[in-house]
Design brief:
Layout lengths: L10 H5 L3 H9 L5 H19 L2 E4 L1 H16 L11 E5 L26 H8 L3 E6 L33 H8 L5 E6 L5 H7 L2 E4 L19 E6 L2 H11 L29 E4 L10 H16 L3 E4 L5 H26 L6 H10 L4 H20 L6 E5 L15 H4 L5 H6 L3 E8 L5 E8 L4 H13 L21
Parallel strand pairs: 2-3, 2-4, 7-8, 7-9
Antiparallel strand pairs: 1-3, 4-6, 5-6, 5-10, 9-11, 10-11
Length: 481
């Protein structure tokens, strides 16, 4: 049995560790999984009553798993990567014996018998599940204040939200309640929370990570992806969950590289296409300045950055909306007819809107998707990857009376959602309000390694991802009553 916990760092020190840092200490038995789980649980107990990041906390199960992992590692069976690392799962990802609600009244009693593929992959790799995190209802209806659980709060400000729909993941990681988590992304649901919470989120290529056991939003656009505080940690998580799953009809049987090994720090002579027109006219001025500065830093690291023109962002947003609404209605229309009162207002409105999409509209949108996607892919003849804003602003206000966020601005995540290519969101600055701002990098299909390499090289020379939210308001002494 490990004895490191007797001389382990303090709980606050342990929760500041990235996955990579914690793994190095676990490998040489300087700390134990028990230390990490206990530190995380103490932080969750202190902060989550104010942040609402978790729907379910699996503290008892996590402690038991930590003791087993401690014994196994002490015997010499250390698996590397995420072994012994506490993690969280978005609550639309099924977990055996643990409530999987999709943040909806319709799934209040849903306790699956089997783990989703990504949950099983994380457990096989030695990860320790701490709990299930808040989301928009069925990852589409939100932010909502009329669901069984309140929306999560952004750790950077009690007056702002953490984006969605992987809301709880964004809040929990930024608040150091957990070092990493797995979310889902259909139109930006990993990248948006990452962007406004000051963390990193990766949407891998469509089919790179199995979605078996994940409650669907849009079959043809749904992805699973890692979220963490650093690009390196996202690479470690992707190493654990990537791979072909013959039980997922959308899964692709493509070779899976060692993503962490690809983080060489060198991006010299890589060609980056800056899609500046997607954000320059519509994003907040501080976003424009931050992303432009990030592009100059990539040039300073030896990359060749040139502006490139693609179709207007609105085209990608409109095309995705038709496809997604049509598929959403196909999935949840029958439940809407049977139990309309049990949906939150936001989700109910989205499903109803999907009922107005005709088959002709849907088929035409699929053709338009092919056209728009081919134009994204054509740029990869000239460029190794594309860069643009991660989000058009800082975090949304925590306002139950605000307009639907979809109607308020263009969603810069949509082109890479439609195209299905890998896209990474990482912090590149802060607004005058102290809210995180973000850069987005998109790569060739199945070339997550290059996207991660460029993002990690950027993080070697910046410290945006190391900044910590001022959480005094979310402590028992400083929180609102």
């Amino acid at each position: 049995m490990l004895t490191a916990s007797r001389t382990a760092p303090s709980s606050s020190d342990l929760t500041e560790l990235t996955i990579a840092e914690a793994a190095a200490l676990l490998e040489r038995r300087a700390i134990s999984p028990v230390d990490l789980v206990q530190a995380a649980m103490e932080r969750i107990e202190r902060l989550d009553p104010h942040l609402h990041a978790f729907v379910t906390v699996t503290g008892k199960e996590a402690r038991a798993a930590a003791y087993l992992a401690e014994t196994r590692i002490a015997s010499g069976d250390y698996r590397g990567g995420v072994d012994g690392i506490p993690f969280a799962l978005k609550d639309n990802i099924e977990t055996a014996g643990v409530l999987t609600s999709s943040h909806s009244k319709l799934r209040l009693d849903n306790v699956p018998a089997e783990d989703a593929a990504v949950a099983a992959s994380m457990k096989r790799a030695g990860g320790i599940l701490l709990g299930k995190t808040a989301t928009f209802e069925f990852t589409a209806g939100g932010p909502s204040w009329d669901l069984p659980w309140p929306p999560a709060i952004n750790p950077w400000s009690e007056h702002h939200l953490p984006g969605g729909s992987s809301s709880g993941n964004g809040a929990a990681i930024a608040a150091r309640m957990v070092a990493g988590a797995i979310g889902t992304d259909t139109g930006g649901s990993v990248r948006w929370p990452a962007a406004v919470c000051g963390i990193v989120g990766l949407k891998p290529t469509y089919g790179r990570v199995s979605r078996r056991g994940v409650h669907p939003n849009t079959f043809s656009l749904d992805h699973c992806g890692p979220m963490a505080r650093s690009v390196e940690d996202c690479a470690i998580l992707l190493d654990a969950i990537a791979g072909h799953d013959p039980r997922d009809p959308g899964s692709c049987d493509e070779p899976v590289p060692d993503y962490r090994a690809a983080l060489t720090g060198s991006i010299a002579r890589l060609r980056i296409g800056l899609v500046r027109h997607w954000y320059s006219a519509d994003a907040q001025a501080e976003v424009v300045a931050a992303v432009d500065a990030a592009a100059r830093q990539l040039e300073g690291l030896g990359a060749i950055v040139e502006e490139v023109e693609l179709p207007p962002l609105q085209d990608y947003v409109d095309c995705k909306a038709v496809i997604s609404l049509g598929e959403l209605f196909a999935i949840y229309g029958n439940e809407l007819r049977a139990r309309p009162q049990d949906f939150g207002k936001s989700m109910r409105q989205r499903v109803i809107a999907g009922g107005l999409v005709r088959a002709e509209d849907y088929v035409q949108a699929l053709g338009w998707r092919t056209e728009l996607t081919s134009k994204v892919f054509a740029t990869f003849r000239r460029f190794d990857l594309l860069a643009t804003a991660g989000w058009m602003s800082g975090a949304e206000a925590n306002d139950p009376n605000s307009d639907d966020f979809v109607r308020k601005r263009l969603l810069v995540t949509m082109p890479f959602s439609l195209a299905g290519n890998p896209a990474l969101s990482l912090p590149c600055g802060f607004s005058s309000e102290g809210l995180p701002l973000s850069l987005q990098l998109g790569g060739r299909p199945f070339d997550e390694a290059t996207v991660l390499r460029v993002g990690e090289a950027y993080q070697r020379v910046t410290d945006w991802h190391r900044r910590v939210p001022p959480l005094g308001w979310a402590t028992s002494e400083g929180a609102r009553s």
